[in-house]
Amino acid sequence: MNVDDLSSKTGEWLRGEGQLADVVVSSRVRLARNLAEYPFLSKASPSERTEIYRTITEEIAAASVIDDELLVDIEDADPIDRQFLVERNLISRNHAGGEGSRGVGISRAETRSLMINEEDHLRIQGLRSGLDLDSLWQEINDIDDRLAERLAFAFDNTLGYLTACPTNVGTGIRVSVMVHLPALKWTKDIERVERAAQDMRLAVRGLHGEGTEAAGDLYQISNQTTLGQSEEDIIRAFRDSIIPRIAEYERAARDALARHGESQLDDRIWRAYGILKNARCISTEETQTLLSPIRMGIHLGRFQEFDINTLNEIFLFAQSAHLQKMHQQSMSGEQRAVARADYIRSRLAE
Amino acid sequence: MNVDDLSSKTGEWLRGEGQLADVVVSSRVRLARNLAEYPFLSKASPSERTEIYRTITEEIAAASVIDDELLVDIEDADPIDRQFLVERNLISRNHAGGEGSRGVGISRAETRSLMINEEDHLRIQGLRSGLDLDSLWQEINDIDDRLAERLAFAFDNTLGYLTACPTNVGTGIRVSVMVHLPALKWTKDIERVERAAQDMRLAVRGLHGEGTEAAGDLYQISNQTTLGQSEEDIIRAFRDSIIPRIAEYERAARDALARHGESQLDDRIWRAYGILKNARCISTEETQTLLSPIRMGIHLGRFQEFDINTLNEIFLFAQSAHLQKMHQQSMSGEQRAVARADYIRSRLAE
Question: What integer is the mean pLDDT of A292-311?
């Protein structure tokens, strides 16, 4: 299996199914681990970095923690392939744009991604469509156990797992749930959600994590600290309280829009559709912005021109690297804008 | 014939035909006249105003200068009817919103409109689709002659015709040509046109004259002075020089856009179409703004979804008073926005 094998389908995180799928796009659980016998990456020499990379990739293969595994050497990878993996949420922007020996192991279904030499030596990630944290945690925990049999992870009896960034010290867990909050954004109540999240020491970030915009009104809600709480406590809080409450709040805002501003709501949905169906050049950002009201419209049963799967495919494949892989060539920004509009029109003409 | 009889068709000024019709929407020639035996309106008492109104309307009828005449008493007219006449360019905004005895005589084809007690006692207007100033001037001149046999107009041997506003003193003629300049607007070269016009003592105004915006990139080019030039000189300058040069300039800008920014040009045209075809609420201003690139697209042969007649009908009938007459009821701004979007969608679904 190679990167191109991924490019014909949507991947796990945009499958559009699962619990609370009208608001929750996907769930992610990530564990940060470092090898005890090597320094953190900021202190590691290039040769140590290469040794870490080799050691971990060998043990991942030996432990068979990835089914039908795809191991991508990010250092050697084509820039379009790197960007492609970012667009599929399989590696971080930092990982794509970093330097030195690094790579990622990905399962065929794109439910698992193990980043090697990102910020930590190893980051074990699980991804699921919708809200599905329990099975995700079991799976990641199992991978962690199996790798721990082969790799000595840096661990302190008082602090727990040691990580490159102090905020990850402890369990090393980060739970992130991607939620679609167009109504809260529209009514500006999103600011109240952000303040409440801050009080609860939660981070609210954009589509591609830290420092990125909430393109398409997609927000990542994640825990900011991992010290002093068990993994199960954090998972439970997200599953039973944090995410259901945000979903409820968003649903109430959608209902209010439908009750008090029906024409404006439909107007926003249909104009977005009209532009996507007719534009001759369009950016990724505008595409994602326009897909947002349509995504809401589909979930509210107000829009039936196409379904959520088509929307998610357009969302994913209209991105720059996906487009260039589709055309099997490197393209300028202007060429991509035209090719993106062409692709969207052809999808919507089906 | 009454006002409602006009409401089923487009009228002369949006017929979309005539010379240079890809740039020139319509031509207008207006003469300002005042009765010698009465003071200007600013000094006239209400009873004098009423006498002026009665005298002129009687003589218009007696002289048969309007075929199948429609005489509208603007003072008594329903506000929607007044606005309706403004939207059809048959009376000015000032005439609609003024006070006291006033009215307008309109020919069935809407090629003639005689405003009584607007700024002057009488304004004789002729309207034609495209650039057609010669026959227009002959016609208006003939009406003026026939009325002059029955009415004594204020005239000074040195100054010429006396008018309420000094800028009209002399011949009292105003030539206005409505031009569509989307490419010059887009490339910002419109500013050079405006500066050149100023140097030539021409006024560049918006759709509904003085102080109005150039909605839909429609500009009225008109002479600012009437003193010291014969009517024929002014007509000739517009016909042979001013308007052909502006049209040439606009055409060159359109060609340049088509050559150097084909995708951007088509993008603008098709997005406008996509929004009009899908919006659920829309303002008059936005409608006219969106129709502008489509109007250009039709003339450039780049857009064939509907023709210029349909476009002109939508332009006219999507306006507030036209919409309310269509629905035979007074509507709030919000109701109109929804009804306008419904009307446009139904026209574009044909």
Answer: 96
Annotated active-site residue B167? The verdict is yes
Question: For the segment B154-172, what is each residue's pLDDT rounded down to a tens digit?
Answer: 999 999 999 999 888 889 9
Question: Does residue A340 register a pLDDT over 80?
Answer: yes
| Number of other CB atoms surrounding residue A158 within 10 Å | 4
Tell me the three state secondary structure of residue A25. strand
The pLDDT confidence band at residue B209, using thresholds 50, 70 and 90, is: low
Q: What is the pLDDT of residue B68?
A: 62
Give the mean model confidence (pLDDT) for residues B181-189: 95
Contact criterion met (CB below 8 Å) for A180 and A244: no
Instruction: With cut-offs at 50, 70 and 90, classify the pLDDT of residue A6.
Output: confident
- Are B131 and B24 within 8 A, CB to CB? yes
Query: Residue B212: its pLDDT value, please?
Result: 65
d(CA A110, CA A13): 8
B232 is catalytic: no
Residue B81 has pLDDT above 80, yes or no: yes
Q: Which of B50, B167, B187, B289 is catalytic?
A: B167
Please tell me if residue B271 touches chain A, with a CB cutoff of 8 Å: yes
Which residue in B271, B278, B341 is closest to A279 by CB distance?
Answer: B271
According to CATH, where is 3.30.590.10 located in chain B? 3-254
DSSP B241: I
For residue B62, the number of C-alpha atoms closer than 13 Å in the C-beta half-sphere is: 12
Residue of A nearest to B341 (CA): A267
Q: State which CATH number among 3.40.50.170, 2.30.170.40, 3.50.30.50, 3.30.590.10 fits the domain covering A3-254.
A: 3.30.590.10
Active-site residue, selected from the candidate residues A15, A28, A30, A33: A30
Helix count (H) and strand count (E) of chain B?
14, 10
Of B78, B12, B24, B8, which Cα lies nearest the Cα of B295?
A: B24
Q: Are A209 and A220 in contact (CB under 8 A)?
A: yes
Average pLDDT over residues B40-54: 96
The span from the CA of B202 to the CA of B183, in Å, is 21
- Write down the pLDDT at residue A206: 82
Interface test with A, best of B280, B286, B336 (most A CBs within 10 A): B280
Annotated catalytic residue B310: no
DSSP B146-186: HHHTTS-B-EETTTEE--SSGGGTBT-EEEEEEEE-HHHHH
ipTM of predicted assembly, 2 dp: 0.89
- pTM for the model stands at 0.92
With CB atoms and an 8 Å threshold, state whether B274 touches A277. yes
Cα–Cα distance between A66 and B46 in angstroms, integer? 94
Is the C-alpha dihedral spanning A54, A58, A59, A65 positive or negative? positive
Is B281 near chain A, with CB under 8 Å? Answer: yes
User: What secondary structure letter does DSSP report for A217?
Assistant: G
Q: How far is it, in rounded angstroms, from Cα B224 to Cα B36?
A: 24
- Closest CA of chain B from A212, distance in Å: 28
Q: Would an 8 Å CB–CB cutoff place B290 in contact with chain A?
A: no
Chain B nearest-CA distance from A264, in A, is 7
Active site residue B165: yes
The helix/strand/coil state of B72 is: strand
Does A146 contact chain B (CB < 8 Å)? no
